[in-house]
Amino acid sequence: MSKLGVTALAVLFLGGLWLIAAPFAVGYQPLGGGWVTATRNDLWVGALVSGISFAGLVVYAADALRELAARGRHARGREAESVTD
Amino acid sequence: MVRRLAGAVVAALGLMAGLWLMLAPFALGTQPEGRDWTDPTTTEFFTGVGFAVVGLAGLLAFAAALRAELVARGLMTVRAAAPEPQPEPAQAAAPAADQDLAALLAPLAAALVEEMEQRGTGVQGDRTEAPPAPNGRARDFDPFAGREYR
Questions:
Q1: What's the pLDDT band for A71 if we cut at 50, 70, 90?
Q2: Do A34 and A71 form a contact (C-beta atoms < 8 A)?
Q3: Most buried residue among A26, B59, B132, B134 by CB atoms closer than 10 A?
Q4: Residue B35 vs residues B5, B30, B31: alpha-carbon distances, Å
């Protein structure tokens, strides 16, 4: 189940990047002119979604690594105990 | 557990961002009323639909994973489904019905026993004098003759 969630976070991150690029890619933001309302909305929402989803991915990876490190320490501790016995 | 909780929160934010994107063209007034959807409206609306669907899927996935981890750690117990109650009104009413029936039949039974006792003494006394049955066999008293019992 967590894999599906991580995939969703990655898709949200890519979607946020798309939303930042959309006004210029689709062409409803005139080049050289001031930003229109739709552009401003897309940039803000896209930046927020991509930033938050990226942070979520980083937190997920960090917590998974921390758990792996804790398990590794635990396993090494057990090996040392068995050798001394 | 922290990563699953953080993932659920982020997915929920993505879901809300998607809902906002679907509403934004109409809320901000960038979509003229009564006219076909413009390019910004189409882009924002369908991107919002995608965000909402993906955010909901991620939220459900992280919530299920979080629940499974809580159950595995013993911090949450899964309650078994309660068995369906069996209907018992018929069983409860049965003793009362039996008592009523017994009270109703008690005088009949007493009268029957009394009659059987009287006839039993009469048959013993008059056995030699009793007329033979039409088929030649002895005429015996059968108090239950002609009755049907279940």
A1: confident
A2: no
A3: B59
A4: 43, 12, 8
